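New to this. Please check this protein:
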Amino acid sequence: MLDRGYANAWTIEWMNEFKQDFLVRWKKTHLLCHSEKGTKQTHLLARSFKAVGRKMLRDNQRKISKYVTIAYTQVTHADFKDKSLWLIIVRDKKSLQPPMYLLTSIAITNTRLAWEMCHSYMHRWNIEQTFRCSKAELGMESPRLWFWENRLKLLAIVALVYDFLLMLLRNWSHWIPLFLRHWCHRTGNRYRNASIPIYRLRLAISHVLYTACCACQTSG
């Protein structure tokens, strides 16, 4: 699953080389070939295909719900005409946002599969947030380790810590706000509007452990 920065022939070539399926958000100006419509820019080709389904989706980034429609068709790339690809067209029914074009190597034979690809791509932001937290907050970005086995051990430890934080947020959500208010209090509009519980939870736990260590040293 790749964003528009990877929408090029090089990506398709390497995915074919490693026999790997892919889903990439395609740019509207890139050329695609259709057996009946010919070779056109993606947004011009997409105009020929009417929606085959619609539903209400929640846009978590913009905090709005909107009706979207979906269409799909089989296409090829000009540089790889022997490789069958499928173009998925996702349109905002009220045209509040431009259409989204998804190109995949997975055969789309019905509307259900098209929606699955759409939902998979729309969850990419959750994946990116996971990587961001793991790199910046949990120290995966610049490990000072020479040997690969040692790096794998560090990544395994980080994965356990991340899973522990998610487990706390999922199973103990009723006391998390009280815990954060006491050990990681924040003020200001940014922290009232932003949803960053895992960052504050990690910091709150570190404050608790630091306080406990100081108390043990003082009593000892």
